[in-house]
Amino acid sequence: MLTLTWEPITLQLKNVFRIAHGASAQRHNVIVRVEEGVGEAAGVAYHGETPERIIAWLQTVRLAGDPLHLVDLLAQLPQEGSRAGRAAVDMALHDLWGKRLGQPLYRLLGLNPDNAPSTSFTIAMDEPEAMAERAAASGMPIIKIKVGGENDEAMVRAIRRATDARLQVDANGGWSREQAAAIIPRLARYDLQIVEQPLPAGDIEGLRWLRKLNFGVPIFADEAIKTPGDILAHAGAVDGVVIKLAKSGGIRPAVEMIALTRALGMQVMIGCMVETAVAVTAAAHLAPLCDYADLDGPLLIANDPFRGVRYDRARLVLPDRPGLGVTEGE
User: Fold this and answer.
1) Is residue 64 located within the same domain as residue 173?
2) How far, in Å, CA of 324 to CA of 99, rounded?
3) Which tens digits make up the pLDDT trace of 150-161?
4) 33-88, pLDDT tens digit by residue?
5) Sign of the four-CA dihedral 245, 251, 253, 259
6) Domain residues for 24?
7) CATH code of the domain containing 273
8) DSSP summary character for residue 235
Protein backbone atom coordinates (compact mmCIF):
# COMPACT_ATOMS: atom_id res chain seq x y z
CA MET A 1 0.00 0.00 0.00
CA LEU A 2 1.15 3.52 -0.76
CA THR A 3 1.13 5.91 2.19
CA LEU A 4 -1.60 8.54 1.92
CA THR A 5 -1.70 11.43 4.42
CA TRP A 6 -3.41 14.82 4.61
CA GLU A 7 -3.49 18.01 6.63
CA PRO A 8 -5.90 20.97 6.58
CA ILE A 9 -4.43 24.36 5.80
CA THR A 10 -5.94 27.81 6.39
CA LEU A 11 -4.97 30.39 3.78
CA GLN A 12 -4.94 34.06 4.76
CA LEU A 13 -5.79 36.33 1.83
CA LYS A 14 -3.95 39.59 1.21
CA ASN A 15 -7.30 41.33 0.60
CA VAL A 16 -10.89 40.37 1.27
CA PHE A 17 -11.94 38.31 -1.75
CA ARG A 18 -15.44 39.38 -2.73
CA ILE A 19 -17.29 37.85 -5.68
CA ALA A 20 -20.96 37.38 -6.59
CA HIS A 21 -21.10 34.27 -4.34
CA GLY A 22 -19.93 36.16 -1.22
CA ALA A 23 -16.78 37.41 0.51
CA SER A 24 -13.97 35.76 2.48
CA ALA A 25 -10.66 36.67 4.11
CA GLN A 26 -9.63 33.03 4.53
CA ARG A 27 -9.85 29.83 2.54
CA HIS A 28 -9.68 26.35 4.00
CA ASN A 29 -7.92 23.75 1.86
CA VAL A 30 -6.37 20.32 2.42
CA ILE A 31 -2.77 19.35 1.53
CA VAL A 32 -2.51 15.72 0.45
CA ARG A 33 0.58 13.54 0.19
CA VAL A 34 1.10 10.16 -1.47
CA GLU A 35 4.57 9.00 -0.43
CA GLU A 36 6.74 11.99 -1.48
CA GLY A 37 4.14 13.33 -3.93
CA VAL A 38 2.03 16.36 -2.94
CA GLY A 39 -1.37 17.67 -4.02
CA GLU A 40 -4.01 20.11 -2.81
CA ALA A 41 -7.79 20.07 -2.44
CA ALA A 42 -9.63 23.40 -2.46
CA GLY A 43 -12.50 23.73 0.00
CA VAL A 44 -14.83 25.82 -2.17
CA ALA A 45 -18.23 26.06 -0.52
CA TYR A 46 -20.19 27.03 -3.64
CA HIS A 47 -18.94 23.83 -5.28
CA GLY A 48 -20.06 21.83 -2.27
CA GLU A 49 -16.49 21.20 -1.10
CA THR A 50 -15.44 21.57 2.54
CA PRO A 51 -12.36 20.26 4.37
CA GLU A 52 -14.62 17.82 6.23
CA ARG A 53 -16.13 16.43 3.02
CA ILE A 54 -12.71 16.22 1.37
CA ILE A 55 -11.18 14.36 4.32
CA ALA A 56 -14.14 11.98 4.54
CA TRP A 57 -13.53 11.07 0.89
CA LEU A 58 -9.77 10.70 1.43
CA GLN A 59 -10.46 8.20 4.22
CA THR A 60 -12.01 5.87 1.63
CA VAL A 61 -8.96 5.86 -0.67
CA ARG A 62 -6.66 2.84 -0.85
CA LEU A 63 -3.72 2.87 -3.27
CA ALA A 64 -1.58 -0.17 -4.04
CA GLY A 65 0.94 -0.70 -6.80
CA ASP A 66 4.01 0.67 -8.53
CA PRO A 67 4.13 4.52 -8.52
CA LEU A 68 5.28 4.37 -12.15
CA HIS A 69 2.03 2.65 -13.14
CA LEU A 70 0.20 5.97 -12.96
CA VAL A 71 -2.88 4.95 -14.95
CA ASP A 72 -3.44 1.88 -12.77
CA LEU A 73 -3.24 3.95 -9.59
CA LEU A 74 -5.61 6.62 -10.87
CA ALA A 75 -8.12 3.89 -11.77
CA GLN A 76 -8.22 2.91 -8.08
CA LEU A 77 -9.67 6.26 -6.99
CA PRO A 78 -13.37 6.30 -6.03
CA GLN A 79 -15.30 8.11 -8.75
CA GLU A 80 -18.05 9.38 -6.48
CA GLY A 81 -17.63 12.02 -3.78
CA SER A 82 -15.24 14.94 -3.53
CA ARG A 83 -13.84 16.09 -6.88
CA ALA A 84 -11.42 18.36 -5.04
CA GLY A 85 -10.15 15.39 -3.03
CA ARG A 86 -9.73 13.34 -6.17
CA ALA A 87 -7.85 16.22 -7.79
CA ALA A 88 -5.47 16.40 -4.83
CA VAL A 89 -4.62 12.68 -4.98
CA ASP A 90 -4.29 12.89 -8.78
CA MET A 91 -1.81 15.79 -8.39
CA ALA A 92 0.16 13.90 -5.74
CA LEU A 93 0.36 10.80 -7.94
CA HIS A 94 1.58 12.84 -10.92
CA ASP A 95 4.13 14.53 -8.65
CA LEU A 96 5.28 11.14 -7.35
CA TRP A 97 5.46 9.77 -10.91
CA GLY A 98 7.68 12.65 -12.02
CA LYS A 99 9.89 12.43 -8.97
CA ARG A 100 10.46 8.69 -9.38
CA LEU A 101 11.32 9.27 -13.07
CA GLY A 102 13.45 12.35 -12.29
CA GLN A 103 11.62 14.58 -14.78
CA PRO A 104 9.33 17.64 -14.52
CA LEU A 105 5.71 16.88 -15.33
CA TYR A 106 5.54 19.16 -18.38
CA ARG A 107 8.35 17.15 -19.96
CA LEU A 108 6.62 13.84 -19.28
CA LEU A 109 3.50 15.28 -20.91
CA GLY A 110 5.55 16.39 -23.93
CA LEU A 111 4.81 20.09 -23.40
CA ASN A 112 6.96 23.17 -23.88
CA PRO A 113 6.56 25.57 -20.92
CA ASP A 114 7.53 28.50 -23.15
CA ASN A 115 4.15 28.07 -24.88
CA ALA A 116 2.14 28.81 -21.75
CA PRO A 117 -0.12 31.89 -22.06
CA SER A 118 0.37 34.75 -19.63
CA THR A 119 -1.82 34.71 -16.55
CA SER A 120 -4.47 37.22 -15.62
CA PHE A 121 -4.49 38.86 -12.17
CA THR A 122 -7.79 38.98 -10.30
CA ILE A 123 -9.25 42.11 -8.72
CA ALA A 124 -12.06 41.19 -6.32
CA MET A 125 -15.16 43.35 -5.91
CA ASP A 126 -14.66 46.49 -3.82
CA GLU A 127 -15.14 50.22 -4.12
CA PRO A 128 -14.22 51.23 -7.69
CA GLU A 129 -11.27 53.43 -6.70
CA ALA A 130 -9.83 50.75 -4.40
CA MET A 131 -10.05 48.23 -7.24
CA ALA A 132 -8.41 50.67 -9.63
CA GLU A 133 -5.54 51.24 -7.19
CA ARG A 134 -4.92 47.50 -6.84
CA ALA A 135 -5.05 47.00 -10.61
CA ALA A 136 -2.54 49.79 -11.24
CA ALA A 137 -0.25 48.69 -8.39
CA SER A 138 -0.15 45.12 -9.71
CA GLY A 139 1.57 46.16 -12.91
CA MET A 140 -0.02 43.13 -14.56
CA PRO A 141 -0.90 43.30 -18.28
CA ILE A 142 -4.08 41.19 -17.96
CA ILE A 143 -6.64 42.05 -15.27
CA LYS A 144 -9.67 39.92 -14.41
CA ILE A 145 -12.37 42.00 -12.72
CA LYS A 146 -14.93 40.32 -10.48
CA VAL A 147 -18.36 41.73 -11.27
CA GLY A 148 -21.97 40.73 -10.69
CA GLY A 149 -23.07 43.52 -8.35
CA GLU A 150 -24.60 46.97 -8.50
CA ASN A 151 -21.47 48.95 -9.47
CA ASP A 152 -20.17 46.83 -12.34
CA GLU A 153 -19.71 49.58 -14.88
CA ALA A 154 -18.21 51.97 -12.33
CA MET A 155 -15.67 49.30 -11.33
CA VAL A 156 -14.65 48.52 -14.89
CA ARG A 157 -14.51 52.21 -15.83
CA ALA A 158 -12.27 53.03 -12.86
CA ILE A 159 -9.87 50.20 -13.67
CA ARG A 160 -9.76 51.11 -17.34
CA ARG A 161 -8.81 54.69 -16.39
CA ALA A 162 -6.04 53.37 -14.12
CA THR A 163 -4.42 50.88 -16.49
CA ASP A 164 -4.07 50.00 -20.16
CA ALA A 165 -4.06 46.28 -19.31
CA ARG A 166 -6.24 43.85 -21.20
CA LEU A 167 -9.45 43.44 -19.21
CA GLN A 168 -11.60 40.39 -18.53
CA VAL A 169 -14.77 40.36 -16.42
CA ASP A 170 -16.09 37.43 -14.39
CA ALA A 171 -19.66 37.64 -13.08
CA ASN A 172 -19.53 34.22 -11.35
CA GLY A 173 -23.13 33.70 -12.44
CA GLY A 174 -24.28 36.92 -10.78
CA TRP A 175 -26.41 38.34 -13.62
CA SER A 176 -29.85 37.42 -14.89
CA ARG A 177 -30.35 37.10 -18.64
CA GLU A 178 -31.82 40.60 -18.81
CA GLN A 179 -29.05 42.11 -16.70
CA ALA A 180 -26.35 40.44 -18.79
CA ALA A 181 -27.90 41.63 -22.06
CA ALA A 182 -28.00 45.18 -20.72
CA ILE A 183 -24.57 45.39 -19.07
CA ILE A 184 -22.30 43.46 -21.47
CA PRO A 185 -22.56 45.97 -24.36
CA ARG A 186 -21.83 48.80 -21.93
CA LEU A 187 -18.78 47.02 -20.51
CA ALA A 188 -17.62 46.05 -24.01
CA ARG A 189 -16.86 49.75 -24.64
CA TYR A 190 -13.93 49.38 -22.22
CA ASP A 191 -12.25 46.89 -24.58
CA LEU A 192 -12.98 43.55 -22.92
CA GLN A 193 -11.11 40.38 -23.81
CA ILE A 194 -13.58 37.90 -22.22
CA VAL A 195 -16.86 37.77 -20.30
CA GLU A 196 -16.79 34.81 -17.94
CA GLN A 197 -19.86 33.04 -16.51
CA PRO A 198 -22.37 35.86 -17.05
CA LEU A 199 -25.36 33.68 -16.10
CA PRO A 200 -25.99 31.18 -13.29
CA ALA A 201 -24.42 27.75 -13.82
CA GLY A 202 -26.79 25.48 -15.68
CA ASP A 203 -28.56 28.15 -17.74
CA ILE A 204 -27.14 26.82 -21.00
CA GLU A 205 -30.04 28.06 -23.11
CA GLY A 206 -29.56 31.51 -21.62
CA LEU A 207 -25.88 31.43 -22.59
CA ARG A 208 -26.83 30.32 -26.09
CA TRP A 209 -29.32 33.20 -26.36
CA LEU A 210 -26.78 35.68 -25.00
CA ARG A 211 -24.09 34.55 -27.42
CA LYS A 212 -26.45 34.98 -30.38
CA LEU A 213 -26.85 38.65 -29.44
CA ASN A 214 -23.21 38.96 -30.58
CA PHE A 215 -21.79 41.73 -28.42
CA GLY A 216 -18.34 41.15 -29.90
CA VAL A 217 -16.88 39.73 -26.65
CA PRO A 218 -16.22 35.98 -26.22
CA ILE A 219 -18.32 34.30 -23.52
CA PHE A 220 -16.75 31.59 -21.36
CA ALA A 221 -18.45 29.13 -18.99
CA ASP A 222 -16.80 28.22 -15.68
CA GLU A 223 -18.87 27.08 -12.72
CA ALA A 224 -20.86 24.44 -14.62
CA ILE A 225 -17.83 22.88 -16.34
CA LYS A 226 -16.89 19.81 -14.30
CA THR A 227 -17.13 16.84 -16.67
CA PRO A 228 -16.76 16.05 -20.37
CA GLY A 229 -20.55 15.90 -20.49
CA ASP A 230 -20.73 19.49 -19.31
CA ILE A 231 -18.45 20.55 -22.15
CA LEU A 232 -20.61 18.71 -24.68
CA ALA A 233 -23.72 20.38 -23.27
CA HIS A 234 -22.17 23.85 -23.69
CA ALA A 235 -20.98 23.31 -27.28
CA GLY A 236 -22.37 26.15 -29.39
CA ALA A 237 -23.61 28.03 -26.33
CA VAL A 238 -20.27 29.61 -25.40
CA ASP A 239 -16.99 30.51 -27.07
CA GLY A 240 -14.84 28.80 -24.45
CA VAL A 241 -14.72 27.03 -21.11
CA VAL A 242 -12.69 27.35 -17.93
CA ILE A 243 -11.10 24.11 -16.75
CA LYS A 244 -9.86 23.85 -13.18
CA LEU A 245 -8.24 20.81 -11.59
CA ALA A 246 -10.40 21.07 -8.47
CA LYS A 247 -13.56 20.85 -10.59
CA SER A 248 -12.42 18.27 -13.13
CA GLY A 249 -10.91 15.89 -10.59
CA GLY A 250 -7.24 16.34 -11.43
CA ILE A 251 -4.59 16.54 -14.12
CA ARG A 252 -5.54 13.47 -16.16
CA PRO A 253 -9.25 14.34 -16.57
CA ALA A 254 -8.30 17.97 -17.25
CA VAL A 255 -6.07 16.92 -20.16
CA GLU A 256 -8.95 14.88 -21.59
CA MET A 257 -11.37 17.80 -21.16
CA ILE A 258 -8.97 20.21 -22.86
CA ALA A 259 -8.73 17.86 -25.86
CA LEU A 260 -12.53 17.55 -26.05
CA THR A 261 -12.99 21.33 -25.88
CA ARG A 262 -10.53 21.77 -28.74
CA ALA A 263 -12.31 19.10 -30.80
CA LEU A 264 -15.59 21.01 -30.38
CA GLY A 265 -14.01 24.21 -31.69
CA MET A 266 -14.01 26.11 -28.40
CA GLN A 267 -11.20 27.86 -26.57
CA VAL A 268 -9.78 26.88 -23.19
CA MET A 269 -8.82 28.83 -20.11
CA ILE A 270 -6.90 26.96 -17.41
CA GLY A 271 -7.91 28.41 -14.05
CA CYS A 272 -7.50 27.92 -10.34
CA MET A 273 -9.34 28.40 -7.08
CA VAL A 274 -7.73 30.33 -4.23
CA GLU A 275 -4.97 27.75 -3.85
CA THR A 276 -1.32 27.53 -2.87
CA ALA A 277 1.56 27.01 -5.26
CA VAL A 278 0.90 23.25 -5.08
CA ALA A 279 -2.38 23.21 -7.03
CA VAL A 280 -1.55 26.25 -9.13
CA THR A 281 1.79 24.81 -10.25
CA ALA A 282 0.04 21.55 -11.14
CA ALA A 283 -2.37 23.51 -13.34
CA ALA A 284 0.47 25.57 -14.82
CA HIS A 285 2.01 22.39 -16.24
CA LEU A 286 -1.08 22.17 -18.49
CA ALA A 287 -1.04 25.85 -19.48
CA PRO A 288 0.81 25.21 -22.80
CA LEU A 289 -2.32 23.36 -23.97
CA CYS A 290 -4.56 26.39 -23.36
CA ASP A 291 -5.45 29.76 -24.88
CA TYR A 292 -5.75 31.66 -21.59
CA ALA A 293 -4.49 31.23 -18.04
CA ASP A 294 -5.94 32.46 -14.76
CA LEU A 295 -3.34 31.08 -12.37
CA ASP A 296 -2.79 33.85 -9.85
CA GLY A 297 -3.72 31.98 -6.64
CA PRO A 298 -0.33 32.33 -4.90
CA LEU A 299 -0.34 36.08 -5.62
CA LEU A 300 -3.53 36.45 -3.57
CA ILE A 301 -2.31 34.56 -0.48
CA ALA A 302 -0.30 36.04 2.39
CA ASN A 303 0.89 32.74 3.95
CA ASP A 304 1.60 30.32 1.12
CA PRO A 305 4.14 27.81 2.55
CA PHE A 306 4.99 26.40 -0.89
CA ARG A 307 7.05 27.60 -3.83
CA GLY A 308 6.55 26.43 -7.38
CA VAL A 309 5.53 28.36 -10.47
CA ARG A 310 7.15 31.82 -10.57
CA TYR A 311 5.82 34.99 -12.13
CA ASP A 312 7.81 37.20 -14.48
CA ARG A 313 5.05 39.79 -14.36
CA ALA A 314 2.31 37.75 -16.06
CA ARG A 315 4.59 35.15 -17.64
CA LEU A 316 4.42 31.75 -15.97
CA VAL A 317 7.87 30.29 -15.22
CA LEU A 318 7.60 26.59 -14.45
CA PRO A 319 10.12 24.93 -12.14
CA ASP A 320 12.43 22.40 -13.79
CA ARG A 321 12.58 20.15 -10.73
CA PRO A 322 11.07 16.63 -11.00
CA GLY A 323 7.32 16.14 -10.71
CA LEU A 324 5.35 19.28 -10.03
CA GLY A 325 8.59 20.95 -8.94
CA VAL A 326 7.05 22.33 -5.75
CA THR A 327 9.14 22.91 -2.62
CA GLU A 328 8.16 23.84 0.94
CA GLY A 329 9.63 26.20 3.50
CA GLU A 330 11.89 28.26 1.23
Assistant:
1) no
2) 8
3) 999 999 999 999
4) 999 999 999 999 888 999 999 999 999 999 999 999 999 999 999 989 999 999 99
5) positive
6) 4-102
7) 3.20.20.120
8) B
